[in-house]
Here is the input.
Amino acid sequence: MTTLNVNGKKHSIDVDPDMPLLWAIRDIIGYTGTKYGCGKGLCGSCMVLMDGQAINSCQMKAATAEGKKIITIEGENKNLQLLQESWVKHNVPQCGFCQPGQLITATALLNSNDNPSERDIENAMSRNICRCGTYQRIKSAIIETVELKNS
Amino acid sequence: MGAVRNISRRSFIKGIGLASGGLIIACNSNPFASEPKDLIEFNPNLFVQLNSDGSLVLVASRSEMGNGVRTSLTSVIADEMEADWKRVSIKQATGDAKYGDQNTDGSRSIRYLYETMRKMGATTRTMLEQAAAKKWEVSVEECSAKDHFVHHTSGKKISFGDLVEIAKTLEVPEEVTFKSKDKFKYIGSYLEGIDVPNYANGSAVFGLDKRVDNMKFVAIKRCPSTFGTAKTFDDSEALKIKGVEKVMQLDRVPRPFGALGGVAVVANNTWAAFQGKDALKVDWDLGANGSYDSDDYMELLTKNVHKKGTVAKESGNVNKAFRKATKIIESTFKAPHLAHAPMEVPNAIAVVNGDTCEVWAPTQDPQTARTEVAEFLGVEKENVTINITFLGGGFGRKSKPDYIVEAVAMAKQLNSPVQVIWSREDDIQQCYFHTVSSQYMKAGIDADGNVSGWLHRYAFPSIMSTFNPAADGPAGWENGSATNMPYLIPDMRVETGKAPAHVRIGWLRSVINIPHGFSVNVFIDELAHAAGKDPLDFRLNMIGTEDRIEGGEGDYKWNTKRFRHVLKQVAKNADWGKKLPEGHAQGIAVQYSFLSYVASVAEVSVKDGKVKVHKVHTVVDCGVAINKNTVESQMEGAAVFGMSLALYGKITAKDGAIEQSNFHDYQMVRMHEAPEIHVEIVDSDEKPTGVGEPGVPVIAPAIVNAVFKATGKRYHSLPLSDHNLV
Ligand code: FES
Ligand code: FES
Here is the structure.
């Protein structure tokens, strides 16, 4: 049995200890906002917050995540909520599929850096691929969120 | 345009998923449908339902894949109807011929449906005004709809919802007037995408997120070479994996969109299915495509374009024109296969119950899916329901329902609901690939610096090969982007060479305009250079100052005025020719595709041998822009999509197998590489034309032309990573 703390709730699951956190969250626990894009740590679609840090959940075994606080796109975090509002305002998503991952990466950035420069934003966000090419709007939405927080 | 009908009281509104009770207006948007004589013959496909609480339900017949179509299509109805956009909810139609053509492909959703939707909206508005007049016992001329109310000249008003019961009893007016352009509230505005909040909070249900009771997860190992088959397999290791329940063979369905076949692993979660698939040992019969080598193939194509081919277009006398020229320029352009790689991999859920079947899938073309499934099961189409989920990108991949047929075949074989999930590796290696091409171009420049003779000869495996394996040359429409150009070249010949296909060839966002847009735009730049002229002036000169209206498709002729305008405007916006920082340079390209005109200027720098794209300016003329937010987004996305293929896009094959497998060797542009993008939408009263695809083809040539300006080096093949530029 593995016990995971996802979005403030404890879930005891019986899975192969090698199962990546991504699939435990999606297929076993049932939060489908976290996406599969590559399974190889290359695209960021599967990003979740683990103790506040953004991690590719396809690259971490569910068993390793025991005892850590995991927040998915469905979860609560002040920066996440602010970013989501800004995402809507800037009409960021096209197909929307990569956006949960983008939002989680951006949340972790704002959790650790109150005033990221454009370069900081690009560095952090380069872990995520958007095949629809929404990067410009993502960047504007993050910049605006930072300004809003600091005003 | 089909007739608009009031079907509020008709029984056949069941089956379209609208609750009865409201005012329901329906219409058949199919331009080829004959006018129905009675309601029995009437086969509507567009629906507006106004309920007495004022809520308005609109049915979207096209698929949402980032194209914003659920918002743009319905906003047209809401605008004409004077409805409040906030009261609108959208119902996604299932795949059914009664909704007319639902294929969300070819950048034509808006083009096909615009007029009809306006008529639906205007009709509903007029009926509400008539209902108010009846209620107040006044003349209808004194009533006008605005913002979900009908207002009387006296100042009193009544809400749309309160008029439903009367409006339901009215005949549909024969004549309605459209709103004038200056009264548009939503058309031509910046509307927020209706689904955006759900994308941002993770609640939007994509195909991969859908679940049905007792569903099994299935991964399929397919032959590395196209159409190869499994001779034997060993599943002993696969069956040891926790969660794997069964391994079984899946036969190929030899149809254009049939299942490829292979060995399927059935599991109780996705990861177990993937692990099981990796653990399978399969002995393959690689079949006829088992020796496909894309390097050898490129050599063959190149050989074929250096000898006389089949003439696709001929005017004047090219050889005579070449003899008159003072300079002859020749180049050979090469572009590789590409994979769509939508962010959401192909996947589908199927439930088969006796002779009925229900599917949930991200599909661009639910009706083709329905036909394929019905054919496969040998049942009537009526027995098959295709539910469309959100699509995590499509780009043409999800118009081909092979993955849906796989799910249905597995559900039938297993007698259980299944979800078939492709891994990213499956997606990149088993795609319907964008074609691979070699193109030979030759042109002369005369003493005045004008083009004298133009020969364009190309070879690429045709999309038609997917439908007819014997097809080894392009279909007529695949020549369009080479033969249908606005340039004044009296002596011109376009020829095609042979190219048999060894993988499944499909259409990818902007299709053949990618290689043709690349070769033509880069070649014109070379000619301008040879003539000692500025590439923008040279193009404008080739287009000429006269307004010519010709070419195009059906009613939609192209107009050289619009070509000139997008070119001049993009040059103005990008400040073409301005002084740039050391090492920076601009490149320009223009392409007419999907009936829209797009010109882009790319600003690049090359430092330490590496290229960086700093800015892209795009001007698009797509006729009336319905939702400017969507048009701008699509152009921004197209710039990034075009840049990915220019810099990195390359799929290769050895021994029949695709060599790339995931985003490490099939790379995408990321945020730190993405340029600043400026988009201008030409203000136009012309009929709306394509938006989703036309922004792509100009990007690669604009970059390559800018790199030439910056370095003096001309690159004739894509991607630029092959030249160590990234
Ligand atoms: S799915 Fe985990 S990084 Fe792509
Ligand atoms: S919005 Fe489609 S992949 Fe990012």
Remarks:
- Residues 9-200 of chain B form a domain with the Aldehyde Oxidoreductase; domain 4 fold (CATH 3.30.365.10).
- Residues 109-136 of chain B form the longest helix (28 residues).
- Confidence is low (pLDDT under 50) at residues 11-15 of chain B.
